[in-house]
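Reminder: ligand-aware prediction takes two inputs, not one.
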Amino acid sequence: MQKPLLKLLTNPVPPPIPPIWLMRQAGRYLPEYCALRSKAGGFLNLCYSPEMAEEVTLQPIRRYGFDAAILFADILLLPQALGQKLWFDTGNGPRLTPISSGDMLNPDDAAIHLAPVMQTLDRLTRSLPAETTLIGFAGAPWTVASYMVAGRSTPDQEPARWLAINDKPAFQSIIDKLVAASIDYLAAQIKAGAEIVQLFESWAGSLQGADFEHWCITPVMQIIEGLRAQGLKQPVICFPRGACHDMGDYVARTKCQILGLDSAMDRHDICEKVSEEIVLQGNLDPQCLVAGGAILDAAVEAILRDFEGRRFVFNLGHGVVPQTPPKHVAQLVRRVRQTR
Ligand code: CP3
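Here is what comes back for the chain with coproporphyrinogen III:
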């Protein structure tokens, strides 16, 4: 039997039941995740231990039988592999020593640094159920650079926008190093067993027009081209969260196979603008998953109705939030898989 998610990509006819997985399906809403993280002594220890990262990736698959497992890691492991200092302050999110030029990055030891991630994937190819698709990922360069320049999460990516405007060659040198390193990183993930890769562009919403084209579309296009140039044909999911750009143009130029939609994107508008060759993914509001009950059922129903006749992957519009009751996730999976 072909895996449902991979079958969706090769079959032009949408299946009666869409495949389902969730961004951040592994994480703090699961008690078994919290227990292992405290045993590991921190989030990064989990990411760099192939045994524990494998276990955390499998936790939501055991509970819910999702159609895909996403590698447990983080988009900020790549800057760390390029020599930037990274740590996680509990409660304050990620911290990095800020950089202002690509000259401060060194790709020489990146592959060695990231070898544990490949071991996690390799283990998962053997431990996942036969029907589960394995997804690898990286951050898109603009999003990753926004953390590298600011050294932390920022609401509007002001430090990166400032550098892009005031010293464009310096910012370009960071983006160029990220493009090259992301091609190598994703190619290695695919060789280690990832069957699909997702590029997380979480901060697409802070740019528009020519800036969006230059810093969001071009680098993502170069990464996908770089993978194809190596003969790697695995599907790529792009998730440009908050983008106000025309999504028809975005998919045509990046040449992604799956488009991830955030919860604010208008499903009717997207269905009109994006070619039917493209598989859509999304876009339940994570807050509906916190609410559960009739609110969740109605939101799921609306998505199934709006995407009827389209090939799509059921997912959230952003990651599962820590306050989500695990039983609401079970309710969601049951509802999506219930024959209509
Ligand atoms: O289950 C999965 O989705 C796979 C693992 C995964 C994580 N981060 C684990 C994680 C993935 C795909 C990511 C992507 C990621 N990381 C993004 C893009 C998606 C998005 O959320 O917009 C970004 C921006 C990051 C950077 C990052 N990592 C931030 C800003 C934070 C702090 C915020 C938070 O949610 O705590 C993290 C930490 C992080 N990454 C956690 C997990 C499970 C929580 C760490 C903990 O256990 O305390």
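The first strand starts at residue 68 and ends at 70. The two ends are 23 Å apart (CA to CA). We will return to this case in the review session.
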